[in-house]
Amino acid sequence: MKKLTYILLLWITTTNVVNAQLLKFSTFYASFSTSAPFAENQAFLVNGVAGSGQLVETTQVSQPNRNVSVGLRKIARFDYQVKQGQFYTGNENEVSDYATVSNAPGIEYLLEYSSVRNRGVVFEQHEYKVRYISNHFTSRAAYVDDGLIDLKYTLGEVRLRKSLGGLDLTAGVAHRSHPVYGYSPIQAWFSIPENKHWWQLANEFGFYSDENECWTRDGVCVSMSDVEFYRYHFTDAVSEYNKREINKLGLQQELSCVIGADYYYYQDRLWLHSWASIYPLHKGLSDYSYEYPGDKTEYDLGLIFGFKFNRHFSIFVEGRKLKYWDIESYEMRTGINYIIF
Predict the structure, then answer these.
(1) Residue 203 carries which DSSP code?
(2) Rg of the chain, C-alpha, whole Å
(3) CA dihedral defined by 243, 247, 249, 250, rounded to 10 degrees?
(4) Burial class of residue 210 (count of CB atoms within 10 Å of its CB; 0-12, 13-18, 19+)
(5) What is the pLDDT of residues 293-324, one digit of tens each?
(6) What does each C-alpha distance from 310 to 77, 315, 318, 335 come to in angstroms?
(7) What burial class does residue 57 get, using C-beta atoms within 10 Å of its C-beta: 0-12 exposed, 13-18 middle, 19+ buried?
(8) How are strands ordered across the β-sheet holding 215-217?
């Protein structure tokens, strides 16, 4: 099924290239933004015994926040949408981009990479997705790596489609691959009798202490006490260990049943757009495929609602919630607009 999905998407893409339609109406963008970092509260510790120790400031000083994005976008807007600005910046994050059924038939895509630094934490975000909508079926392929919530997966799916006016029903099969989730290498490490002390793990990743509790890494002092080290730096060793061991296990494969419903209604004063993709059944294909602890149902839900009471007053609600492998991602916006004139 996985090969069939990718072959189908490749064929669709190739056909559109030949017809010179793939890049028509698409937009390439690149942007850079920066802002002042969050002002951290001052933190201190006493290095030594009470009455004779030294007060050491341990406030974390963050570098400026920044975001570098580059992407290629071709997604049809719905009737209730207007372009947010003169330029795409990579921060549009339209909730409707995740609906199963588009507002126009054919091929659409979003290919975006971002490098982010936020409060001193540096991570990357990858989102590459392609979907094709026809009158009788839908198909899509995606690669997502969201460093903000540590969610990474590839997806390929094909669904049959039944359109009932504003309501679209879909059902099909999805193949997903993902890193190992639900398994903690550090817990397994500490369950080994020989691994009795945390400093053993710290040493493995280049952290060493002397008789004065000065911890160094690569010859550079990183903390002046055990308390400071285990509070601020030991987590780096644990994170590196977990990441290394998880990467050794490779990507896990699974097949899932998927059913969906999309509803779209639009008038000048009222619009409602909602969708749901439900994954109720799963078949793990790898040794470390996710073991669902309870309810196996996963989902991707979205809702957009707007109502204009009159020329002055209007309300809106927009939200999306996703749950894969017990990792949840959600966003919501709601509010009012009142035009004074």
Answers:
(1) H
(2) 25
(3) 140
(4) exposed
(5) 878 899 999 999 999 999 899 999 999 999 99
(6) 24, 11, 20, 16
(7) exposed
(8) 207-209, 215-217, 220-223
Give the C-alpha separation, 143 to 126, whole Å: 7
Tokens read off for 79: 């009737």
pLDDT, one tens digit per residue, over 78-87 is 888 776 656 6
Q: What angle do CA 155, 331, 279 make, to 5 degrees?
A: 35
For 145-183, the DSSP string reads EETTTTEEEEEEEEEEEEEETTEEEEEEEEEEEE---S-
CA-CA distance, 206 to 219, in Å (whole number)? Answer: 9
Give pTM, 2 decimals: 0.76
- List every span in the chain annotated with CATH 2.40.160: 2-38+62-180+250-338
Q: How far, in Å, CA of 301 to CA of 281, rounded?
A: 17
Tokens found for residue 52: 């004779």
Residues, the chain, total? 341
Q: Is 295 exposed, middle or buried (0-12, 13-18, 19+ CB in 10 A)?
A: exposed
Q: Regarding predicted confidence, which is higher, 209 or 88?
A: 209
Phi/psi for 255 (5° steps) reads -105, 145
Q: Which residues contact 134 (CB under 8 A, 6 or more apart)?
A: 105, 161
Q: What is the DSSP letter of 135?
A: S
* Alpha carbon distance 223, 95 (integer Å): 44
The backbone torsions φ and ψ at residue 151, rounded to the nearest 5 degrees and listed phi first, read -120, 125
On whether the CB atoms of residues 276 and 258 are closer than 8 A, the answer is no
Map tokens 């971002």 to a residue.
114
Instruction: Give the single-character DSSP code of 97.
Output: G
103, 271 in Cβ contact below 8 A? no
CATH of 2-38+62-180+250-338, one of 2.40.160, 2.60.40, 1.10.3470, 2.40.30: 2.40.160
Which of 254, 273, 270, 271 lies closest to 262 in space, CA to CA?
273
